[in-house]
Design goal:
single chain, alpha+beta, three-stranded antiparallel sheet, 52% helix
């Protein structure tokens, strides 16, 4: 069964952040600002299961987890950027009630 990609509030921000370089979980949370620990973890898991980001666990003195875009994840940046521009440009004209999956479940 294929996993679904839900474009919620944090999905574009996470993908755009990882476009520049890999981040550890804590670094990514600081980069994003007001995202909760639970929402960040949930969104990262969804993106990983969709194959858009990779999670790498390393162990030196302490275990660290680093997230980066996959090759597939890099291909979604340009279309996502276009969708964000469209949403910004036409947000006043869109009459549909847009509900985010995260808002409904969390």
């Amino acid at each position: 069964m294929a996993s679904s990609i839900f474009i919620g509030r944090w999905t574009p921000k996470i993908l755009f952040s990882l476009r520049e370089r890999p981040y550890r979980h804590g670094q990514l949370r600081r980069q994003l600002g007001s995202v909760s620990q639970r929402m960040l973890t949930r969104t990262l898991r969804n993106l990983e299961s969709a194959g858009l980001i990779a999670r790498r666990v390393t162990q030196s003195k302490a275990i660290t987890v680093e997230y980066s875009l996959t090759k597939l994840g890099r291909t979604i940046i340009a279309p996502l950027r276009g969708m964000c521009r469209w949403a910004k440009r036409y947000r006043k004209d869109v009459s549909a009630d847009v509900r985010l999956r995260e808002a409904e479940t969390g």
